[in-house]
């Protein structure tokens, strides 16, 4: 909406500028389209910004992602009409090192992939001609640029907007770490009054001259409620700092997640004749945030429990080059879930998103990517310092930002380091502390009204070194019930910490298990990747945090699944701890959070991540969770009422007597209802009635829905007469032993969860199917991995290599299917292998794996009745 301006009080030129904005002389435009990109400067292709060269290869099993150089070039025409203007290029983010050339001459080099940088290019331009911009981008490992190491993919490329900025010789400074050239500070903010001070930097690219500065504050309706004029004399070729203090505003409307009321600050610079030179604006939100080690987080003097998410910026099929509109949908989804806080992890995200947090009412923790370890090089220290300067100065004016951070799990690599001597480790601790102190001081100096933060992993080193007491708020990233111990241990740990360090304010800055929507089980277990385990962990954590007043809050890891190239979770190269999938389809747990956090409108969700094509066996009941923010709900199945239920902790859990075929669940309150239909294949035990296809996930306690074949592989069991199961052998996989069991990237398949669990030492498996002709598919993989290939794991243990050869013959009903199957020898490492055969039987199928050497292994069986 156009602000309502009282023209009478403005100089003529300002009136003209407001009425005819084209009269303003500063201009910033994106130049994102039609860049040429090459990896070798020989073969060029046309691309648009945002762009990354790792959107595909970071998910490719064979290639791994290319970390190295990428070249970009583009021509821009500059007219001599603009010869009195000053030109800048602004790169909003290039990962991770960029060298910019204009017409063949080096203009700048920038290190760090997540903050913006500007370069002034005026003297390098040719007028009335095309000018060549070239950018050499490097995302190879660089010991001087954080992050050195982290659990996310470092996609290379120019992945945020590139802007061409053209300004008159006097303008709001573009030189202060690519900030907007002004910084908003609030003073004496309370319910009764609120003060605003603005520090403004103005660059003069000429000899001494007079200018005029005009600042106004508009309310949300566009009414001007404050204005300040200031005459200036700008020194020759200097940057001037101007401080403007507005008289306090009475009875201000405060900003909060529930009422994100925003004022607007508008800044106008004009020359001595009143001609407008430059304009800027910013959101203003009156709020003050504090933390208390006993009572938690306070906003505007009121306690509020911070409950929200961490967010990574990448997105399925886009890498980090995600269109901004798609990214904005994330923020809406997060708000819709009822969250009141986002930790933008582990680096600054697009500025547009912070602006959206201002508007929607979400508190923000933002940080720079100093993750897992540091080095003691001078350059690393300098780059870290510059990065935090850029970060704070570029993100300072968003009222949603209340927390500035600078390190995550900075002792992670040290804790796992088995090579360095004690002396070397001590030296690294000292270096890390030195950098932490330096950055803490810098952050407090640059952002004196913000809360400083840092996050650590489960290790005493954060206490021993005292690093946890540097920031005003310390975040623990805790994975009890995943990498460590049990879900219930969270509260105990936090209580102990609180007791030992009563002056320290705490946040649970990360938590959560991996979860794959294709995996479900009645008996959720650690590391099974089931959505049921995800529900169990999050629901318990929420309870444990909300019942502890000293905890400021919790931010789930992670809002969405994200790319982490070296990982082999149930989907390889993806960290699956998201509340929503990589393409942002919500997992059930997202809706559970909504049911406990958002009470604005009645809400019901039937948790059905895993119900697609479900197979159930005879009388089996399956527990279904229903999520709602209502107190009571009525539930019916296939038109028959199952009764009324009390909702506790947002949940009603019901063992559902599903029938074979389509089932419809209806959940209702007085004036609101929700319905879902699902397909169940109920197979009757002991006679295989309703049986057409039957899949078993060998060695697993969970169901796996295989989308490509549209079938659910049921959990394994010991043989029961007339039914199916193993006669010997033992489960080997994710849940048997943490290290053995960590999921690995299995090649040649998308059905990892089927392969990742298996039976070892099984020589006989029986299915008592009726007479018929069957197609039988057997799934195999050699499960042992070398310790060096062990994936990212926060536990202290390592796996041992005991790679032994296994050779076995495969028979079905005494018919030889495969002689001397030797998976390790005949196939590449961790390669999914299937064997298929048609077998006619009078009664039953008996699979025999006759060992010649070592213990036989098998991952799955799928049988299809042909007639
Ligand atoms: C952590 C890290 C985060 C990882 C996460 C995980 O503690 O801070 O970067 O992605 O654990 O999933 O292991």
TrEMBL record:
Keywords: Glycosidase, Hydrolase. The keyword Hydrolase applies. Residues 33-168 form the Glycosyl hydrolases family 2 sugar binding domain. The keyword Hydrolase applies. Gene3D superfamilies: Galactose-binding domain-like, Galactose-binding lectin, Glycosidases, Immunoglobulins. This is Beta-galactosidase. It comes from Gaetbulibacter jejuensis. Residues 295-596 form the Glycoside hydrolase family 2 catalytic domain. Belongs to the glycosyl hydrolase 2 family. Transmembrane segments: none annotated. Residues 188-287 form the Glycoside hydrolase family 2 immunoglobulin-like beta-sandwich domain. Residues 695-828 form the Malectin domain.
